[in-house]
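User: We ran a pulldown and think these components assemble together. Before we commit to crystallization trials, I'd like a predicted model of the whole complex to look at. Sequences follow.
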Amino acid sequence: MTARIGVVVFPGTNCEQDVAWAVQTLGGTPEMLWHADRSLAGVDAVILAGGFAHGDYLRTGAIARFSPVMEAVAEFAASGGPVVGICNGFQILCEAGLLPGALQKNAGLKFRCETVDLRVETTTTVLTSGAERGQILRIPINHFEGNYVCDDATLKAIQAGDQVVLRYVENPNGSLDDIAGICNEGRNVVGLMPHPERASEAILGSTDGAVLLGSLLASAGAVLSGDTPGPRGARR
Amino acid sequence: MSAQPLTRFEARIEVGHRPGILDPQGGVIERALPALGYANVSRVRVGKSIRLAVDAADEASARAQVEEMCRRLLANPVIEDFTVTVFPGDTPEPPGLTAEGSG
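Assistant: Here's a predicted model for the assembly, 339 residues in total across the polymer chains.
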């Protein structure tokens, strides 16, 4: 039995098929979860895919956070379940308060669509357990609002807590401290602006995204086999 | 709870960047205006304006509810702050709602 990965679909999500394809390619079983569902259908991990949930009206993720499925995602996250938000999914996790900080417009006011170098800063998260610290991954970004920002106290806290998961080698968007991805204190919720699903097969130009999604599948497998991480903060 | 007559209030909400938060749109406009000869412009900030009507017992209650809406949805406290102006819904021409000198 393979790990079942729930892929959350809001009205306006547009990367769910790419994520599902990558999950399947890597040996997982993707399962679409509609935003109006109140249940996660017993999946072993959850991915919030990229796009423009609810049209990004008001702010990115501001409306999506009120979709019924988000209550179930919050409960799943609180119980230690692996949750990953990619791009718009990252923005939604921040708005929902599952991750600290916010994503604002890119400093250069340009939509950035290119493949960038990312440095893995920690390997004790559900998304990077199969990577090496300092490893450089080439993965595409595709966003207008990827400029991570938080207050000084929060930045110090996430730095001290080893919660910066990925940094840009060359900052494309003005993001604070070159942050491309962060995790929560429990290390089971990760948000990142780059799209690992777009770098999961050789034909796509890079397979570095498979390092990340493969880690998530392994984390989901740990949940599957009953080796759950336990209460928030207890993982590793 | 006794039924209290409610009055309609109009609220004008300005959502802007918190101090210290980069405002790239404001920066672009500030650099564009001198091209039209306005070399004397500074501190350009771009935000959002939201207007809504709310039925409440009195102005204080209307204001309190709108401020709560701002904290919970209309603004993101991590990056944005807000100001709320409330006035009775029957105010014929609320201050600041009509463009002065337009046309």
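Residues 30 and 77 of chain B are 25 Å apart (CA to CA). That may be worth checking against your pulldown data before setting up trials.

User: Thanks, that helps.
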